[in-house]
């Protein structure tokens, strides 16, 4: 596919605070956080995901990041997050139904799109959601 993901994963971010990371990404990209991209930090696994709203060559951005002095000093890594049609939802309420999961993830307001399959695992409070295309799971 010629389609490139608008998501970039930054790993090993424990030496860089979330605010520092946002500033660093603004400096590298010349874009503005919240207007042109968002950053979601997942501290439990020392990862952050930047989602670019503004059109950007994410592969070129990753190359630039990996060469940047501060990124190297923080010993962070960056990579384009591969596009997928399937996601795993965790920590779902005990009483949730597969139909509700489907409707929730099809909601455009929630960033969803047409769902082709839901595998519900109530004992794990999780589900695997498969979208009809890659655009419905950002």
TrEMBL record:
Annotated signal peptide: none
Family annotation (Pfam families): RRM_PARP14_2 (PF23245), RRM_PARP14_3 (PF23085)
Domain PARP14 second RRM residues, every copy: 4-82
Name under which the protein is recorded: Poly [ADP-ribose] polymerase 14
Biological source species: Manacus vitellinus (golden-collared manakin)
């Amino acid at each position: 596919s010629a389609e490139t993901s608008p998501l970039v994963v930054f790993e090993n971010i424990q030496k860089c605070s979330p605010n520092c990371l946002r500033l660093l990404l603004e400096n590298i990209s010349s874009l503005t956080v919240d207007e042109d991209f968002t950053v979601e930090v997942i501290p439990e696994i020392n990862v952050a995901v930047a989602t670019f709203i503004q059109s950007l060559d994410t592969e070129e951005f990753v190359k630039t990041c990996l060469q940047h002095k501060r990124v190297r000093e923080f010993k962070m890594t960056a990579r384009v997050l591969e596009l997928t049609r399937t996601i795993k939802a965790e920590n779902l309420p005990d009483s949730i139904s597969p139909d509700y999961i489907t409707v929730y993830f099809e909601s455009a307001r929630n960033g969803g799109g047409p769902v082709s399959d839901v595998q519900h695992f109530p004992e794990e409070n999780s589900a695997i959601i498969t979208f009809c295309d890659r655009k419905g799971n950002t």
